[in-house]
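Provenance

Sequences were taken from public entries as deposited. Structures were produced by running a predictor on each sequence independently, with no templates supplied. The record for Androgen-induced gene 1 protein isoform X5 from Neomonachus schauinslandi is shown for reference.
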Amino acid sequence: MALVPCQVLRVAILLSYCSILCNYKAIEMPSHQTYGGSWKFLTFIDLVIQAVFFGICVLTDLSSLLTRGSGNQEQERQLKKLISLRDWMLAVLAFPVGVFVVAVFWIIYAYDREMIYPKLLDNFIPGWLNHGMHTTVLPFILIEMRTSHHAYPSRSSGLAAICTFSVGYILWVCWVHHVTGMWVYPFLEHIGSGARIVFFGSTTILMNFLYLLGEVLNSYIWDTQRKEKEKPKLE
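Predicted structure for Androgen-induced gene 1 protein isoform X5:
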């Protein structure tokens, strides 16, 4: 039996994301006042994705609790739709985008923080908030994968969806540059056009890889648990 019920964990994680988003939006940074505002940053988009995802998780838990034992087929049908939406969001957005943000941010930060998170930002964003945006996303999404089984969509439709998201964000970044003359991320200013194309192509490939990683990890976690439950029966 879990020390903390997964339903309670989801509520706690949702509240933490709401707190992070509120604190982040309350910060008066020059970049928030320019074209695109916070929405030009993948970190902010990811925070919104995670908050919406865990909001759907909490709503699913509440619906499941209210539907249990009612025998109402319409309510059960609506619950199945909610579960399908929850599973789709984890597979296509919450896991690959969340892991991408954490991995790419800290790799570039370790190489040269000025390329992704200039020291000047320390004057605006406290350390705990930086970790809330760029670190805790990973353990939170892994906790969710560990506590609940998620049915992945067909591989072709899942990859098509994450490709659409990736290309859409790349086009958005290019549009912001077209309008303002400035790249969203400082390191894009220091590389040539060819290198940018390679970088954008590589990020799309990485997103696809992370989708597949999530699919494999989800299957591994739940296949292992199923085998462990079957062992006593076989003995």
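The chain is about 75% helix and 0% strand.
The mean pLDDT is 90.
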